[in-house]
Sequence to fold (513 residues):
Amino acid sequence: MKYLLLKHYRSDHEIAPDGLVPMDQWTPDEVAAHIAFMQRVTEEFQERGEFVDAQGLSPEGTYVRYDGEGRPPVTDGPFAETKDLIAGWWVIDVESQERAYEAAAYASSAPGPGGRPIKEWIEVRPIMSEPPTVTE
Amino acid sequence: MNELLRDLSPQVLGVLIRRGAEFAAAEDAVQEALLEAVRRWPDTMPDNPLGWLVTVAGRKLIDAQRSESARRQRELRTGQEPEPGPTEQADDTLLLLSRCCHPALTPSSAIALTLRAVGGLTTAQIAEAFMVPEATMAQRITRAKRTLSGERFTRPGEIGAVLRVLYLIFSEGFTGEVDLAAEAIRLTRQLAATSDDPEIAGLLALMLLHHARRSARRTDSGEIVPLAEQDRALWDAPMVAEGVDILQAALARDRLGEYQAQAAIAALHDDAATSEQTDWPQILGWYDVLTRFVDGPVVALNRAVALGEVEGPAAGLAVVESLDPALPRRDAVAAYLHERAGNLTEAARLYAVAAQKSASTAERDHLTRQAARLNAG
Fold:
């Protein structure tokens, strides 16, 4: 079963239960430890044979839509950072939903200021699969 | 040549294992021997390809053990050198499969190892079939072999675990270049040739009876066609006939099991010239048999459909409503039964709910179309 683990980017306090100081106000060592941990999360998924994909997204996005034949696309944005944005994701292929939750909780334990786990929310979304062959 | 190597690789592995080689080391040795065959056979094809591979793989195994021993201060480990001997493929298939489907492995590891070590597929092909990176699949296989390492396998293990893994490979279906359903049938056929266990035959029959409907299951654009609406002329009649023959021979041995019961249900569906001619009372009887072996909510849900056909939709609905609301496909079955009972508004609502909860896009689209059809009146 494949799951998408979404990491959100929000500058407000809702990103984690205890709130979160923006990363640019951490010490350089705290930033380095956080980034190294994120790399280890990916390596752990690779080592366990669960890794499918990991990407980070540029925070600035633009909404685009069709506006009729022969007309240029309509764009809206880019938006300020106060919006809820997707910062990046992992896609993992695991045995169970329980394991997907465990993996997300591990990613959420990344260290922040003072080396304490930041406990940020990770959104876990099942990826659609093929229907089973035998249904009767 | 690739086809030949694929057929031979599990046989070579089987010989090494039967001679007492450790599984992971033997598998590595076989892979190396295959590579050497790919390099050398185009120039000089051996008279006895299997014998050639066994000899080369055996040599690789000894080489690996020697260098291993060197690392351990030349602590010679005796008893692992393969002795020359006749090949006995028949026994090896079950032996190999029961190693690859060892209960200590997770289902996905067992599937990967089975396809590689017995199916002879490359890691890249298995990765493609499951839509994961090749490195991930390689790692999964390495971990599986590590889990099994140190264990000597000279006798077959639990057959139930093997059948479960083969069933999972089959129901994974077709996802790309490698036809997993056909692969599962090939492996089950090999296994059935080595044993008269009626459950192995039952599983093979079940696979054939479902595989026969493959070209009718989807439209050209990939939309799901439910069993009742399938064009039965598209079913593979010789495959159905083969499945029925295998099932009948298995049932004659009078040792029922879950796969024979499931195959019997599939056979009764395949036997009906039109969906209206389906022998639902017999199917319901087989669900009762199946329940003796697998007493779970999925069987109860499928049985409710049969009950709805025999005793009317209200009887089926009463059962469905007693099942856990979180059970996959429960709302879809309830919607179907409500539609048959004439409760079209409730049916449309439930089809939409089922679409929301569906775990596959093809199924979601199918259920959305059902809801839309009823809503359009």
